[in-house]
Amino acid sequence: MAYSFNISFRDDELEDLTFRLSKNIKKKHCETNADSVVLIDSFAHDNHGLTQQYIRAIMAQQRHLLYITDASPNSENAVGLYGDLNNYPCATIVHVPNRNKLAGLKRAQFIYNEIIKAHPYKVFMHLTPNAVEVIIAMHALSDKIIKYQINLTDHTFWLGATACDYSLEFRPYGFSVSEQARKIDRSKLLLCPYYPIVDDIPFKGFPFEKKNECVIFSGGSSYKFGDDKNTFFVMMKRLLDENPSLIWVHAGDNMDGIKEKMMSVMSVQYLRRIYLVGIRNDIAEVFRHIDIYINSYPFGGGLMNLYAAHFSKPVVSLKRDVYTSANEILGQLKDVSVDFTTIDDLCVEVHRLVECADYRIQRGKQLQDSVIKVNQFNELFDKLCTSNTNILPIPDKSREVHLPSSGELYDCRSSIVKIIKWRGLFVPYCQKEALLYCPSKMISVIKRYFRK
Fold this sequence. Notes:
- The protein is built from 17 helices and 13 strands.
- It is of the alpha/beta class.
- The protein has helices at 12-22, 51-60, 79-86, 104-118, 132-140, 172-180, 231-242, 255-263, 283-288, 303-310, 327-330, 343-355, 357-365, 374-387, 416-424, 431-437, 439-451; strands at residues 33-41, 64-69, 91-95, 120-126, 146-151, 166-169, 189-191, 214-220, 246-252, 274-278, 292-294, 315-318, 339-340.
- Helix 2 (51-60) links the parallel strand 1 and strand 2.
- The radius of gyration is 22 Å and the shape is globular.
């Protein structure tokens, strides 16, 4: 519930609950090896999150790597990732058994045991916001092991603010949110922008034959496009109305939900110029074949903006606040200007991009050097984790950021069923242990969330 609704960015009662549960982990003698690191990943998914970037950076350091994941060893979503790991002689993969076989504190104990066997000096976490068992295991680890949270969901709640020694932030917005709302000291926040993974996956094509049309592309998780006014879809309707040669392609999850939002402001005739293509593992090639990228709204994207800049495609972004800003993502290495504060101004820019190919090319080329290169990322990562101090300029302490109001709903798929599910199972994988070992604390948490 805390993830689906921006009730808060940190919950001290839940942090305390996971810490108390960690007291039930059977501790073992811990030796650390400076050449050994662990990365724990909830996803194991190619071109998703930051798994591959950090794994490749660790490999560039030529360290021993233990990779722990919930995902199946046969996952079709991780062919490239597993290929990287299997081709690296100093990597070991451990798959945590599924929850039908191992759950709760037993699962946390398994994770803890595997980490201890690797004798790591550092542990990196790349987690879902509710990775309860991993957080319990982190609390149980010796202070000799340095723990880093790779913050890939900086816009909302995640568990474990007290379980990490450092948090790796990919943009200034996340840095400020972690300092102001998660209450993590700024000396523990490390700014590390990332690059998009570009693999050699052949282009699967579009469901139309492109001739002289101009293709505007949008994409990302479906929740990033939902607000009460359907602002993004109203804006797209206007762009299609004002630019007859424009075709709109959209990629991502929950195509039914996106279509429902879209059809609430458009008529059926628009479908001739709109193509919903779902999740694309050839996303890099998709960007090669589009003309303009439009950022998501009301929640701005990260990775998609980087892909557009990498392939020198012009970006347009409607800016509500610093969180929705594409400049925030693309302006860390050089000054860029792709944000528009009104729909009118954005529509004027898109029309010019559609009508003038030379202008389109020029605007795209201006973004070329705004994305950190692979070798730059690896070098920055190495310096950050050696010194544990920032290399890039960090946001001012007094900088104001948009913190969504309590109860702000942002998932366009949310329903009363989802709300009840989250309220009933807030510590979803350790609720029995929480009631057994910390009954008063768990009951207090449940009551508090039912009242929200």
